User: Fold these one by one.
Assistant:
Number 1:
Amino acid sequence: MLDFLNGHVRGVMDNHATCGVGTLSSRILGDDGQMFLLFLLAIATLIALSIHEFGHAWMADKLGDPGPRKDGRVTLAPWAHLDPLGTLLIVASTLIGFPVGWGKPVKTDPETYTVDRKLGVALVAGAGPLMNLLAAFVLAAPARFLLGVLQNGAYPPSWEPFLAITFLINVMVMLVSLSLFAFNLLPLYPLDGSHVLANLLPNDIAVVYVRIMKRYGTYLFLGLLVSGVLNDIVGPVVIGLFRFLLGV
């Protein structure tokens, strides 16, 4: 789902070649720095997934469910949200340029919510993607600052590796977070968007929607994913937001 990220991060570096980021990646791992960027993409994916799961846990906690806090999930610490198999798959799949994986699902009990059950489920489901969007906006400020510093070159040469790597990780987390935001809000089962929509629709329509999604949603999702249609839908949204936030 995120295979287009590598190309657009490289595009940012190419457009600002004077900052030296591209030459840094080339010096570290080959002429095009491909493995270097993929390594950073794996790290960024793990961080963004942790932000996503924290969003679910934080909202459930705010709505009165004591479970996520007891489970240690109301934290941004990545190790609290990493699923062993999902993490391994992220690392392995990123090496071939197509990061796929998942974080540890947040266990929550809608019966403990202090609001209407359906509204609570929709809020918790939507909080993960929205937390990713918030993270991208927060990271935009340091990303712009670092890009400006690297462009101006007003720093000791020995600082270049630290500044460039920090910039790259920053924009990678931005891109993955924006991807998780746009991707997970699609109304396809089992994505968060399907749970949001199912709990906002009138009951009679929601019943039909849930029945169709549970029966065909996974197949539709996989078909759109493998065919590349999902990237065609999500990609322009992600890149548009990214360029707006970074000002490139």
Number 2:
Amino acid sequence: MIVLSRGEEVIAALTKYCDEHGIHAAAFHAIGSVDRVKIGYYDLKKREYFFTEESGEFEVASMNGNVALVEGRPFIHAHAVLTACDEGGRVLGAHVKEAHVAVTLEVFLIALDISLSREYDEEVGLKLLKI
């Protein structure tokens, strides 16, 4: 378990944790809250990511991801479903590029005893997971 605190940036904190603990392959899920996020999607036709920044408090209903090596360093790949903490309660779901913890984020990370890496795939234009 990893417990992140208010203000920590999720992707950077998980990358640092994995780097410091020699974790090169893992799966994780998390719950908690965030208040600033950069989320988006990959447009296959244009072969690029499009991101939007959202602010305000969001409950992390679900965050899932994995850790694999890219150029010898841990790379965090995460997706999340977020619910706005307001009367509208809108729901967002997307690839997470950046997320800042609002109160806490409880991360259940399972290190795997396998080799995972990401390698560039010319057909789709992304670094895809290789086992």
Number 3:
Amino acid sequence: MQNSSDPADFVFVEKWASPVAEHAHSATLTSPDVATVGRTSGL
């Protein structure tokens, strides 16, 4: 989905097949390589 007022503003919707799949995805968000992206300047 995209904001019609701001073409650079996007919303991503994620849907998982099961709670187990969602949990597996969430576990990847805490991995050291992904955590580093949040601390990277300009992102």
